[in-house]
Amino acid sequence: MAARSRLAALGSRLSPSIDMTAVEGVVIGGLFGALQAGLVMSLYRTEMVYEIGGIVGLYSLNGGWYVLLALGILFGIPFVAFVSGSINSFANTVIMLSSRSSALQKLLVPLLKRSALGVTCAGVGQLYGVGVGVLFQLVALPVWLRFVMGLSVPVPYLTVGGVVGVVAWALYGGAMGLVYGLILENSTG
User: Fold this and answer.
1) From CA 123, how far away is CA 127, in angstroms rounded?
2) What is the pLDDT along the chain (189 residues), one digit of tens a residue?
3) Phi, psi of 171 (to 5 degrees)
4) Contact 65, 38 (CB under 8 A)
5) From residue 156, how far is each of 39, 72, 124, 135, 138 by CA, in Å?
6) What is the sign of the dihedral through the CA atoms of 172, 142, 153 and 157?
């Protein structure tokens, strides 16, 4: 009997605890952000969405959207680790900057009063999205399409389409961060 209780105690310490609110925020935020990124890409050039699908051999509009939505969720997972480690310092920086500038105070104070975590996560998400855009759209996607899929794509993808992709992923990051922050904030009351 004592061995069972010790084993149960050990098992509870070894099993990772998963915050379902954070999972919900990543999934919903990632899907919402990916939707925005995909719309920007589609408005510029629909073939950009095809290229996203080409990562897994689904070189079609539907395939591109499936992969884009999946990437929205997958890219959201590292965002949680990034946010959990940097949110306090970023919030302190925002507060310090707004205390020095009356223009920033007029802009940020009403937003922070409305949803401090949502606004802060949106800002961090915007920066995260730019990083995702540069690493994924300009480097990883063209490398994969060129060397694995055999398509003729310049590496790095320094074209107007590549810049549009970075902007699309920046919008993804901001939207994902906003939704993630709002879900977390609403779960705590």
Assistant:
1) 7
2) 444 444 344 444 444 566 788 889 999 999 999 999 999 999 999 999 998 998 888 989 999 999 999 999 999 999 988 887 777 777 777 777 777 888 877 887 787 777 778 888 998 999 999 999 999 999 998 888 888 878 788 888 888 989 999 999 999 999 999 999 999 888 865
3) -65, -40
4) yes
5) 23, 22, 25, 10, 5
6) positive
Q: Which tokens hold the place of 134?
A: 């540069």
DSSP code of residue 60? S
Tell me the one-letter amino acid at 23.
Answer: V
Select from 22, 145, 171 the least CA-distant residue to 83: 22
Contacts of 130 (CB under 8 A, 6+ apart): 166, 169, 170, 173
pTM of structure = 0.81
Q: CA dist 164 to 34, 74, 169, Å?
A: 14, 21, 9
Give dist(CA 1, CA 61) in Å, integer: 59
Helix (H, G, I), strand (E, B) or coil at 25: helix
Cis ω on the peptide bond leading into residue 154 (within 30° of 0)? no
